[in-house]
């Protein structure tokens, strides 16, 4: 961040399994930064959400690494999740990805909740890739491995191609919750909506 010309006003860590981050949040509140980047797991993402609302942290950009994409997170925080940014690369609003909205609707109809925007999607995409590869190469493991490592596959996450084991077509993306829906806000060429600043919390 410093190399990019971004002033870092606080760089701190908390212990794994932490139960209270009040002091850290109070320092963030005092510093009034433009952005908060919390490289969290779900339990500490929950602590952040609760504490940031209680302390009224209104940094326009608030990023939580892992947690917000899970269905339970939306149930837990409702409208307070709006305009929070997280790691992710899929949205049912991406109309040029075949089957994206259909997958979302079918999952919701079957389970009664939205899919996890990371794990559920990655599992389904993996099955799509395997299905297409088997259709072309059969079940021989060497032929199957070669097919998966060289072909391009149509998925609900867009076209996917591997070079070896590396997915070379899906860029790093950021998701943002907007009015209860998950939108891709970065990179711009993949976005389903424009970024919205986090300016308030519901009480």
TrEMBL record:
SUPFAM superfamilies: Periplasmic binding protein-like I (SSF53822). Residues 1-175 form the Leucine-binding protein domain. The keyword Signal applies. Keywords: Signal. It comes from the Bacteria. InterPro entries: BCAA_transport, Leu-bd, Peripla_BP_I. PANTHER family: ABC TRANSPORTER SUBSTRATE-BINDING PROTEIN, LEUCINE-SPECIFIC-BINDING PROTEIN. Belongs to the leucine-binding protein family. This is Substrate-binding family protein. It comes from Eoetvoesiella caeni.
């Amino acid at each position: 961040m410093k190399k990019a010309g971004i002033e870092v006003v606080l760089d701190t860590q908390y212990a794994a399994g932490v139960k209270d981050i009040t002091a850290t949040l109070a320092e963030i509140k005092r510093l009034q930064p433009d952005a908060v980047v919390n490289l969290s797991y779900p339990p500490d993402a929950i602590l952040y959400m609760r504490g940031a609302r209680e302390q009224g942290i209104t940094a326009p950009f608030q990023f939580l690494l892992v947690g917000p994409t899970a269905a339970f997170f939306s149930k837990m925080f409702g409208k307070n999740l709006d305009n929070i940014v997280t790691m992710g690369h899929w949205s049912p609003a991406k109309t040029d990805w075949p089957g994206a909205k259909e997958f979302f609707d079918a999952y919701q109809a079957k389970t009664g909740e939205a899919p996890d925007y990371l794990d559920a999607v990655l599992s389904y995409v993996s099955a799509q890739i395997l299905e297409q590869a088997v259709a072309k190469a059969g079940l021989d493991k060497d032929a199957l491995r070669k097919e998966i490592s060289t072909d391009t596959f149509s998925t609900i996450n867009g076209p996917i191609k591997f070079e070896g084991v590396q997915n070379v077509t899906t860029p790093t993306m950021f998701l943002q919750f907007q009015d209860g829906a998950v939108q891709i806000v970065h990179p711009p060429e993949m976005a389903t909506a424009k970024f919205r600043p986090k300016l308030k919390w519901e009480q």
